[in-house]
Write a structure and sequence with these properties.
The chain is 35% helix and 24% strand. By secondary structure, it is an alpha+beta fold. The chain has two domains: 144 residues, 60s Ribosomal Protein L30, Chain: A; 154 residues, PurM-like C-terminal domain (Phosphoribosyl-aminoimidazole Synthetase, Chain A, domain 2, Alpha-Beta Complex).
């Protein structure tokens, strides 16, 4: 059955029956004009939004409808992770053709709800718009952080260690593998990193509790571009060590098969959704230990904050190296 053969009310009733209503910090969920959240004393509400547009951010031949919804929410929750916020609620605006299959449309919403629940949030409402054109998901996410302890892009200080929460370039390698039709275990591994991003929510919450964490950002646009955002907002320079870029064996294997340099994916590929963090050198050991103990993640030092401005990529001898394109730009990238 197509959406044009039903009604918005019938579609939303089916969604409500599947997803339920309130729960957790959501006092009033799907079914009313707006959601109501409980915001306890001493906590600040953190809000973000992120869009996924068919043909721009995903292609249907690579994703199931449920995966489309899951991925859109995961990408939005990474922004909360970068702020150290604990997710509590998600709103989804679904812009969909009336010719869309009703079961497929419901699967998109159910995927969004499943991803929300995986990270402790509820799909609390949103909007459905029937319109010709590509499928569009606009996700708004809300989280809570202890007042005054939110992580920001600003605050990095000269001498800070620049660390990252995991390997880089895997998502770009996965996209390249999909485009090239590659198979095998290595291609499968990086394709999963592209299709199922892992927002580092638990790590973000932990970092917001740690002294000496001065700044953070999630790597969505690429290491060079996002490090540039941190440098600009903090009024500092950032030096990245080329020989310290963390590359997974799967990424390196796919790069060899396609005849490209994996470092280009690590520096400019984007959509890894790891956290890039500026940490006081005096506290780095303690923060590193807590991340490994509490989150099973190893923070990897890949650079340092310097005086000046902008981002430098340096070799083992400290000389500046040429770098690839900075990363994703919504108005210039294709």
């Amino acid at each position: 059955m197509r959406l044009r053969d039903t009604s918005e009310g019938e579609f939303l009733r089916a969604v409500r029956q599947t997803l339920g209503g309130a729960g957790g910090r959501v006092c009033l969920g799907i079914g009313d004009d707006a959601a109501v959240l409980d915001c306890p004393p001493g906590r600040s509400l953190v809000l973000t939004c992120d869009a996924a547009v068919e043909g721009r951010h995903f292609r249907r031949e690579w994703f199931s409808h449920r995966e489309i919804g899951e991925r859109a929410v995961r990408c939005a929750l990474s922004d909360l992770a970068a702020m150290g916020a604990e997710p509590v609620a998600v709103l989804l605006t679904l812009i969909v053709s009336p010719e869309e299959d009703e079961v497929a449309a419901r699967a998109v919403v159910e995927g969004a709800a499943a991803a929300s629940a995986e990270f402790g949030a509820r799909l609390a409402g949103g909007e459905t718009v029937g319109a010709q054109g590509p499928l569009v998901l606009d996700v708004a996410a809300a989280g809570l952080v202890r007042t005054g302890r939110e992580l920001r892009r600003s605050g990095a200080q000269p001498g800070d260690v620049i660390a990252v929460s995991g390997t880089l370039g895997d998502a770009a390698a996965g996209l390249a593998a999909l485009r090239a039709g590659l198979g095998g275990p290595e291609a499968t591994a990086v394709i999963r990193r592209y299709k199922v991003p892992q927002p580092q929510v638990a790590l973000g919450v932990l970092l917001a509790q740690c002294d000496g964490v001065h700044a953070a950002i999630d790597i969505s646009d690429g290491l060079l571009m996002d490090a540039g955002h941190m440098a600009e907002q903090s009024g500092v320079g950032i030096e990245l060590f080329a020989d310290a870029l963390p590359l997974s064996p799967a990424c390196e294997a796919v790069a060899r098969e396609l005849g490209v340099q994996p470092s280009a994916w690590a520096l400019g590929g984007g959509e890894d959704f790891e956290l890039l963090v500026a940490i006081s050198p005096l506290e780095f050991g303690r923060v590193h230990h807590r991340a490994k103990q509490d989150c099973a993640l190893e923070l990897l030092g890949i650079g340092q904050v310097t005086e000046g401005h902008g981002v430098r990529l340096t070799g083992p001898d400290g000389t500046d190296l040429a770098s690839p394109a900075a990363g994703w730009d919504q108005f210039r990238s294709s």
